[in-house]
Amino acid sequence: KKAYDEMAKSLVADLESGRLVAASSLVQITRLMQLAASYAEVENEEVVDEETGEIKMKQTVRLVGPSNKIDAFLSDLPDYGDSQIVVFSPSKQVINLLEDKIISMNEKEEKAKKANKDIITYGRITGDEGPIERQNNVDLFQAGKLKLMLVTTQAGGTGITLTNADVAVYLGRNYRKIDDEQSLARVHRIGSEKFERILCVDYVSPGTIDEVIMQSLNQKGDVLQSILKDNDMLINALKNND
Predict the structure, then answer these.
(1) Which DSSP category does 242 fall into?
(2) Residue 45 gets which letter from DSSP?
(3) 197 burial type by CB count under 10 A (0-12 exposed, 13-18 middle, 19+ buried)
(4) Using one digit for the tens of pLDDT, what is the confidence trace for 5-23?
């Protein structure tokens, strides 16, 4: 939260690994979305601009946890019962963190050999998987053999069917309304509905850009797209969300 507040106010946040700097409003919004989901590390590296020959600073941001959203979701997982769940995030790093946490939980269960606990089965659609693996994950999920499908909004927005899910979980929303709508269409497709209703659950960090995005998605048009193009509007939106 401290890092998030610093980035929101001054485009600079001091992390344990170094100083995180946003060079523009668009970069700022990306950093705020990241910090609203998880803690991060930053690596600063001097690189040579191929066109000008000037030495510039390149920043690499890596989400490392803890992640409030992932912890909240996994804590709630037993409450979803036997439902199959598609977990969406615009960030591949968030999906990777979730997978790491699931692997760790599964390893603990296997070592403990707890008969009353089930291994969490899952598949991924993030763009890192090849066509065969991607389709195999979809087939297993549609056959009811996977509890979770971990999906990045961009990679899973089109071309797949995940209608065996009756729950769609969002660990963050894409600020483009069309991308958001396409992700939900993977689960609830007109003419191929398996369930009368789909439960959609958003994990939102209060007092952050998450709330600005959710408000904009509930309005007509790409309101947030307009905000991103106007620095003053962005600053006002962030201030109103303090």
Answers:
(1) -
(2) E
(3) exposed
(4) 999 998 999 999 999 999 8
